[in-house]
Fold this protein.
Amino acid sequence: MSPDLQTQMMRALRGGPSCLPSELLSGTRRAQLRALKAHANTINHARRIALEDSFKRTRELVGHDTFHEVAERHLESPATVELPLRSIGCGMAARFATPRARDLATAEWAWLEAHGAARAPALTLRTIGDQRPERLVDIAVQPHPACRLVALEDADALLWNPSQTGAGDMLLVTRPANDIRLTRIGRSATRLLALARKRTTLGRLLDEDAAATTTLVQQGALRPVLELVL
C-alpha cells in the first residue's frame, strides 16, 4: 500500500466510515465497511498483543483483568493510536495504580528501549586499563545509546527476575554488548550521567566520584567519543 493510501486508510480508521473514500476499497459500500471494520479489529488486536508482550512482568504482577483495563484506557487515548506499533506502550506505565506496578512497567519499557537501541562500543575496564594515565583522563565520553535511567518510586519493592544489582532510587538499564543489565544507582552516579550527556571527559567524572564512575564503566553505561581528525 502506497504512503498516500496508508494515510487515507488511517484517516478512515480514526474518523470512521464517513471518512472512508469510496475509491479506496473495491466492492459495494457495505463490503467496504465490512473490510474497514475487519482491518480495524486486526489493528486493535495487534496493539493489545504488543502491549501484552511489552509488559509481561507487569501483567503477571497486577493480574490479567487489571492489566487489560489499563491497556484499554491506554488505547482509548488519541495520542496512543497515533503511535507506531513498536512504540504503542509508550506512556502506559504511568497509568497503573500502584508505585510497584508503575516501577515495573517503566523498567520493562526501558528494557525494550535498551534492547532496540543502536549498537556502539562501550567503555570498559579493559580498554581503560590499556591507556596511559595522561591519555585516560582526556578520553571524551557520553552515555551509551542503550543507556536508560528510571526513577523508581519504591525501589526496594521492584520485582525483577533475575534481580537487579546495586542500591539507590534510580534504575540504570544498559546493554554494552548483547545482554541487558539492570543496576540500581544513587544520586552521584545519576549526576555523572547528566554530566556525560553534555559530553565530558573521563577524568572529570573520576574527579567528581571515582567509585560511581567505575560503576558506570562496569555496567557499560558510557561510550568513548571518537574525535575526527581533519
In short: The chain has two domains: 3-97, 125-224.
